[in-house]
Amino acid sequence: VSHGNVTISDSTLSENEATYGAAIYSTTGGVVTVSNSTLSDNTADSDGGAISSPSGGTVTITNSTLSNNSSNTHGGAVYSGFEGTVTITNSTLSDNSADSLGGAIYAFFGAVTTSNSTLSDNSAGSNGGAIYGYGSVLTATNSTFMYNSALHGGAVYSEYDAEGGTVEISNSTFVDNDAVGSGSEGGAIYALSLIH
Predict the structure, then answer these.
(1) What is the rounded CA–CA span in Å between residue 1 and residue 32?
(2) Which residues are within 8 A (CB) of 138 and not within 5 positions of it... i.e. 6 or more apart?
(3) Quick check: helix, strand or coil at residue 6?
(4) pLDDT tens series, the chain, 196 aa
(5) Angstrom distances, CA of residue 39 to CA of 34, 84, 131, 133, 178
(6) How many Å separate Cα 196 from the centre of its chain?
């Protein structure tokens, strides 16, 4: 999809495979909306186990479950590229994995917002077991992060850039997240940025 909209509601997308975005691929400012749906067991050889939105796109997920998706690089469930926006509401992201960055969500110079959601049992081979952000604004409200793991930032990893990079947490819970491996840091949050 280019400059287009993808709307998924009351549906199941599972066991799909692709190089990028095994269930959904949207580029160049596309808008992806997922509601009351399940995206599970999808596998990407590269970015975005379930959803890949690599350039200025908007991804909105509401009342949905993304589980057991995997990426061989970044964004086990969702990959959001340059200046993209990801909004997760009343949803569960669980058991997703990325070989490198962002077990559930990867964001590059963008914004990720979770509210009333649970991110659990996600893992990344390198940084950000649940969420990885580079130069991005990461906001969590009334959300739960548990049993996520990575080398750095068991739940959340935020990397500072000249453009910024912040982590804002309110009324949320972090339980049993792990930074694992030699030289690991930040069991719950690893930030080269500001934490509010």
Answers:
(1) 10
(2) 107, 111, 112, 131, 156, 158, 166, 167, 168
(3) strand
(4) 555 689 999 999 999 999 999 999 998 899 999 999 999 999 999 999 999 999 899 999 999 999 999 999 999 999 999 999 999 999 999 999 999 999 999 999 999 999 999 999 999 999 999 999 999 999 999 999 999 999 999 999 999 876 678 999 999 999 999 999 888 989 999 987 555 5
(5) 9, 20, 18, 22, 25
(6) 20
Residue 102: Cβ within 10 Å count: 39
Tokens encoding 50: 């379930």
What's the Cα-to-Cα distance from 17 to each of 35, 177, 179, 192, rounded to whole Å?
Answer: 21, 29, 29, 34
**Rounded distance, CA 31 to CA 58, Å?**
5
